[in-house]
Amino acid sequence: MAGKLPSARTAAVRELRHPESGELLDEALVLRFDGPASSTGEDVVEFQCHGGRAVVASVLSALGSFEALREARPGEFTRRAFENGRIDLTEAEGLADLIEAETESQRKAALTMAEGGLRRQIDLWRQHVLDLSARAERAIDYDEDDFGPDFGLTEACLALAGELQQWLGRPSAERLKDGIRVVIAGPPNVGKSSLINAIVGSERAIVTDTPGTTRDHIEVPLSLRGMPVLLTDTAGLRRTEDAVEAIGVARAFMLAEAADVLVWLGEPTEAPPHRLLIKVHAQADRPDRAHVPDGTTPVSAVTGSGLGLLLERIADSAKQILPEEGAIALNRRQTERLEEAANALRDAGGAADLVIIAEQLRQARTAFDRLTGRAGVEDLLDALFGRFCLGK
User: Does domain 89-172+331-385 have CATH number 2.30.30.240?
Assistant: First the structure.
């Protein structure tokens, strides 16, 4: 690089030249960040080059000629930020989810986590537990009566356990990652596959007048109002002697039972029971289908009539299952650690011995430390940071 590095946190244009030949590689914007006030907590220099592949390749090749330099491994910058205390494990998980986000709701939830939303809440809980631990230890050291633990101490433990339990009852982050399964079900030839094709705007499912055309389910991922949805077409529900079709029908019954939202295209009175059931009056453009039964949504895959209303109803149903927009959603690992803390606090609240209460409070603190990555997470770090793109 021709010229000196700019002052810390000041951008400057510099010529980037090959260290051996002196060849001009690019004119780039150079920024310098001194540790510990940098993204990783270490001294960092950024080259903002022109984006052509040849330019980037030539700069990387020139940097590789220095003996002390090498390419960063996947997730290495974020891992260094974690190891240097710039972020905790929940923020690192949020960054990983942000990189993989495909829908607006996934992006917002991941950003809330990456910006430290859960970390700040855990800090409050952990400080509360530290205060309770101090009360318990003080009572062990100085209380000389045998009347048992302070009632206020055990009540405070139970109150905090109840607060954690409320958090555990929230929709999980896996809902956002996996998507809401919306299953379209009904008898053969009622327009299930035509409806799928009309919604996605392409011929994803085979459509014929022959009953039993759909033999296995077809899944189509969608982003609906910014929410991830897995739209599933199923075999027509009927009795059949065809062995292959029978397998598809059996799977259709199982999918209908496991659906988050069930869209029923058969007779309204024959719809299976389901918590989130949407009854559709399909093929509404046909003259013999002019009468619309009560409680159904008329839809025509041919004209597109009613599709918008149906999608709105599906989105409203999906919204009941997903975390609220911008809310903190716990993943499976975080849920398990929070359950450990809640159980320890509940045990502390039900104990009659101060020593047991103090030990349970210590276990709650350990669970919080494992949740943020302060302890006991070495086994999952490689798997987590391996999800990141090169460097990052």
Answer: no
